[in-house]
Amino acid sequence: MEERGLRVARTDKAFFSKISTTISKLLIPTKIGINGMLITLKRNNVLKNYETCTNNEEQEKDEILQKKYEDAFILYLESIDKYVMDSIYKKVKSRTATAFEEDALSRYYAVIHLKETEYLEYKYRKQKYLLDLDYMSLKNENKTKQVSKYNSFYASKMNGIYKGILKNYSVQLADKMSAGKLDRSEIYDNIFETLEDYIANILPIKLELEGKEGYEEISAEYEKIDSFLAGKLDTRDQIEKKMYLLAVSRKLFTHSLPLVVAEQCYEKLLEEARILLTESKIENKKEKAYELLIKLIEEYNVRLLSTKIYWENQSDREEYKKFWEEYKKIEKEEEDKQTKKEILFIKNELKHLENNKQNKNIIRLYKDKLVEYGELKLLKNTYKTGKKYIKRAVRV
Questions:
Q1: Smallest Cα–Cα separation from 191: which of 111, 129, 246, 229?
Q2: Domain final residue, candidates 152, 168, 184
Q3: What is the pTM of this model?
Q4: How far apart (Å, rounded) are the C-alpha atoms in residues 146 and 141?
Q5: What phi and psi, each to the nearest 5 degrees, are found at residue 232?
Q6: Does residue 372 lie in a domain region?
Q7: Domain membership flag for residue 254
């Protein structure tokens, strides 16, 4: 009897489990419908409050309207969050989810994972994730009118979120107490990925809404970045793309990505470009790597160092002033301008690299270039070792 009872218990458990799964599958569409309705209501409410805030001209009402808008925004995000947990999670668990929904849940957990270690980043990333999810849902459902109405609010909120994310990375990078080189390298990657994500997904919406009139200064770099967004890129292309991303960031994210952080990003790119040049074995690739390095040196000096006001070391500032005067003088010349600039850049680089043994390969390449341009001479020198005389070339 005991044995039979155990068998019945096991059978009942399996039976109720199957019924529970079936009911769960039946209820999922209902939950999606309810959550979808809630999201629509909360979305309409936040858009209404956003429009009221944007069009308000009475200064005394600003604070009250802004508070209503922020409260509506929080409720809107909560409704999307509930949709993820009530609907998408259960659909993935019951294996009835689409590829979009499976990807959405995977991304959700990647964001949640940040909560324990990087709370500030988690806060911004979760807002970004939830807004992106609803935006993509609207686009996938071909709700053109709703997307058009949503764009202004979406671009405005995303602009603030991206600024918050970049500012957080800037603080992490500027903190000299942060952990070692590997951590800093990861932050650099995060900065460039965030800039690329913004330029690929948010800037086109802003250009569509606001027109190109206010973005003339970045239009050339934006077009170049756009050409890098499709296809597989080699190391050289990756460095060049990052260079243009930094150029755009100097205009779009001046405060979120301050000069001291942008300077470190440029120095990181210069280091990568030097390594690429010394490791290139094929002559054609080596020449292209060299051209990129020269272009990057000019970008760094013109876009960043020329605008730098505060210098920790006064002697560095005076040295740079001499360099800058020489650069401006060459810019006014009509003949051999590029070659003269190139020689100036190489000589300036050598001043900063010669004391570091790790840079011996790039120093040799620079000196070879100066010999090629007639700025250095090779003297034949011999010395005796045992009974043999050995000749060597000495640069002066």
A1: 246
A2: 168
A3: 0.82
A4: 10
A5: -85, 135
A6: yes
A7: no
Q: What is the 3-state secondary structure (H, E, C) of 190-250?
A: HHHHHHHHHHHHCHHHHHHHHCCHHHHHHHHHHHHHHHHCCCCCCHHHHHHHHHHHHHHHH
User: Which residue, of 147, 168, 189, is where some domain finishes?
Assistant: 168
Local structure of residue 373 (DSSP, 8 states): T
Residue 42: inside a domain, yes or no?
yes
Segments forming the whole domain that contains residue 350: 311-396
Domain count, the chain: 2
Examine residue 158 and state whether it is found in any structural domain, yes or no. yes
Mean pLDDT by 10 residues, the chain (396 residues): 38 45 42 70 94 85 90 94 84 85 87 89 94 88 84 95 95 68 81 94 92 83 84 90 93 90 94 94 93 96 91 91 94 89 94 77 91 81 51 46
- Per DSSP, 265 falls in state H
Q: How far is CA 35 from the centre of its chain?
A: 33
Dihedral over Cα of 319, 324, 325, 330: its sign: positive
Q: Give the C-alpha separation, 141 to 269, whole Å.
A: 41
